[in-house]
Amino acid sequence: MLEFKEASRRDVRIKMALGGKSGAGKTLSALLIAKGLVENVAKVGVLQTEAGRAQCYLRDIGTFKVLDMAPPFSPMKYIEGIEIAEKSKLEVLVIDSISDEWAGPGGALDMHSAACEVTKNTFTAWKNVTPKHDQFMNRILQSPLHIICTVRKKTETILETVERNGRTIQVPKRVGLKDIQRDDSEYRWIVQFDLEQEGNLATVIKDNTKLFQGKPAFLINVETGKKLRDWCLT
After folding, report:
1. How many structural domains does the chain have?
2. What is the tens place of the pLDDT at every residue in 147-170?
3. 20 is in which domain, residue-wise?
């Protein structure tokens, strides 16, 4: 029987994303937050699409669990990974990364392309793909686990104006642009940070907790996760 209950943040599980281009420190930052969210790092699991990436940080984090996922990176395979994490009694799941669900081999865009071959209609081809993608996103949001997702960003080279030796010159600079995920997916998260490649500093994109909102760029550490854990407990 459905009934109302008193609202409590103890019922909240953090769902967040870390966006950035390659080399911005997304995996390590996600693991540091995960370590801060739980008292026992053995309760942390990583669902990874690049086998061995998370294990590079064992000395920084301690022993955690990993599940390597190979192509095709379909939404249903990600859902299966989340369900395995729940059955394994984990408390925090890092999904590294959810960009492959969208743009990786066998992901949503590949599924759409295959459907287009049949329907010959781009709009109609989304009919069967969109519900599967939405089911994946909703599975994350409904999970009893804290879930931290990494998201790659499309990059572009721009010309930046700088002063060198008393001269004003333009030098090329690679910058991150949009998340490689479905448009507006960032609105689903409780928190999203974007990471800079230089210095791996985090900028707040969205923050329902208001713990980091309005603060300057900072370096993510275990304390970041502890702040989120304490927020959930108060």
Report:
1. 1
2. 999 999 987 777 888 888 888 888
3. 13-233
